[in-house]
Write a structure and sequence with these properties.
The complex is a heterodimer of chains A (about 230) and B (about 230).
Chain A (H helix, E strand, L loop, with lengths): L7 H8 L8 H32 L4 H13 L2 H12 L4 H24 L3 H9 L4 H31 L12 H9 L3 H29 L1 H10 L1
Helix pairs in contact in A: 2-5, 2-7, 3-5, 4-5, 5-7, 6-7, 7-9, 8-9
Chain B lengths: L1 H15 L10 H33 L3 H13 L2 H12 L5 H24 L3 H9 L4 H35 L8 H9 L3 H29 L2 H4 L6
Classes of the chains: A mainly alpha (about 230), B mainly alpha (about 230).
Chain lengths: ~230, ~230
């Protein structure tokens, strides 16, 4: 070779695992960390907050108002403002993404629990379920489809948003975009976009699978009906 | 507390500096640029997405494609698209920036318009047909007013997206408020970074508030009482 720019496959082969920080493999791993941590954190925080909003209805209005505001904040300036607190670290990307995730998930949890039919709740009470057991074994399972629909949105948008972090040097695969811009060269851009979209699709597919496994009654009912 | 002090120092340094208030790279011009680009991209997206969404929602054909493309669009990394179009088309015009901005703003409007129109109570539509309205009249006088909260939600989500992406687009040389942040970061001028970031955040919040206001003004009170968003 040596004449002309390398093809995209050559470029991938040469940069996949160079052992240095900027290899595609390392960027991919960084990208996974920076998108998975906020997804999980957002869910872990949004569940109790959503439950609290259902338990004490007056909490919901201010919470959802605040989350609407949070969701409207553009990521780049938020990263920039956080730098003075958390430095040029992955945390600077992870914190805002967690909040964006919560902004989607808290309403999802509230809507999910609101979708539990009243007669189901009353049956559980009549069967002698304690409030905690009713929540865990009746209400939450019924809320799963709505919560998971929110989680799919969060997963896909977190995975694509991480790349903006490249502008502060922490963007996982987004680093391929800044590199390609500084040294005009198309293959890294294509590889970055394709890998990010692929990651998002895989995450989305896994969540669809999780929903099927967690709500077997949906298919059972369909099967019986047809 | 040192941090808080330097934060306000930076802010004071940015907003207190007279040079930042005049000329082509001053705050007013940058604000105007940001507004122009965001408004242009949003307007183009609205022009494409709303008629298409109305058509698909009203006829009920092609809905699956809308939903799939909206999900796919959410997965597209904005920075990657920007860099790709700039590398493809150069920086001679702002077209390579406008295209991805519009591309990312169309799906939320399209999918919400579609869902809104599709979700109109069939009984309501039947009643309208029964009163002698024709297809387009039913759409314009019944379906659109009922679906308006969702259509506006789609526009608001698109506006949020556009304002954020316009900021990121400063990286590829676009003007606007993102310049303060990107240039300040490159030259370690933190007062510019912090000041610019605060400006963008305020800008985004004003846009958000305007949409909330627009919703209150345009949505019929009979509709807004039982509306459920997102």
């Amino acid at each position: 070779m040596g004449d002309g720019p390398p093809s995209i496959w050559e470029w991938i082969a040469r940069n996949w695992d160079t052992g240095r920080v900027g290899s595609i493999k390392n960027l991919l791993l960084d990208h996974l960390t920076m998108s998975l941590v906020p997804i999980v954190l957002a869910l872990v925080v949004a569940l109790p907050l959503g439950l609290a909003c259902v338990r004490w209805r007056w909490l919901y209005q201010p919470t959802s108002g605040l989350m609407n505001v949070v969701y409207a904040l553009p990521s780049l300036p938020v990263f920039m403002l956080l730098i003075s607190v958390t430095g040029l670290s992955q945390t600077t990307v992870i914190i805002p993404l967690t909040f964006y995730g919560m902004a989607v998930l808290i309403p999802a949890v509230v809507d999910g629990l609101a979708s539990v039919p009243d007669h189901v709740r009353q049956s559980a009470v009549a069967m002698g379920f304690t409030p905690l057991r009713r929540l865990i074994s009746v209400e939450l399972p019924i809320a799963v489809p709505v919560v998971l629909a929110g989680l799919r949105v969060v997963a896909v948008s977190s995975i694509s948003l991480v790349s903006v972090g490249a502008l502060i040097g922490q963007g996982g695969l987004g680093g391929l975009f800044t590199r390609a811009y500084q040294n005009p060269f198309m293959p890294p851009v294509i590889v970055g976009i394709v890998l990010i979209v692929a990651l998002a699709l895989v995450a989305d597919g896994l969540l669809v699978l999780a929903q099927r496994l967690l709500t077997p009654w949906v298919r059972a009912r369909k099967g019986a009906g047809s | 507390m040192n941090l808080l002090f330097s934060f306000f120092d930076w802010l004071a340094g940015f907003f207190g500096n007279g040079e930042n208030w005049s000329g082509p790279s001053g705050i007013p011009m940058r604000l105007l640029e940001h507004l122009e680009f965001s408004a242009l991209a949003l307007a183009l997206a609205v022009l494409i997405a709303i008629p298409l969404g109305l058509l698909i929602g009203h006829t009920g054909r092609g809905g699956v494609i809308v939903v799939i493309s909206a999900n796919l669009a959410r997965a597209l990394p904005t920075l990657g698209l920007l860099v790709m179009f700039v590398l493809l088309m150069g920086t001679a015009s702002s077209l390579p920036v406008i295209i991805p901005l519009v591309l990312l703003a169309v799906p939320p409007i399209l999918v919400n318009t579609f869902e809104g129109i599709k979700g109109v109570d069939p009984d309501l539509r039947d009643a309208a047909f029964g009163m002698g309205l024709r297809g387009p009249q039913v759409l314009g006088r019944v379906s659109v007013p009922v679906a308006l909260p969702l259509i506006l939600l789609g526009c608001r989500l698109a506006a949020i997206q556009v304002v954020a992406t316009t900021t990121v687009a400063a990286y590829t040389g676009l003007g606007g408020l993102g310049r303060f942040v990107i240039d300040g970061f490159a030259t370690k001028d933190y007062s510019s970074v912090v000041g610019g970031s605060v400006l963008i955040v305020l800008f985004a919040l004003v846009v958000q508030a305007l949409f909330a206001l627009a919703q209150r003004v345009t949505v019929s009170p009979g509709v807004s009482r039982r509306v459920k968003v997102r």
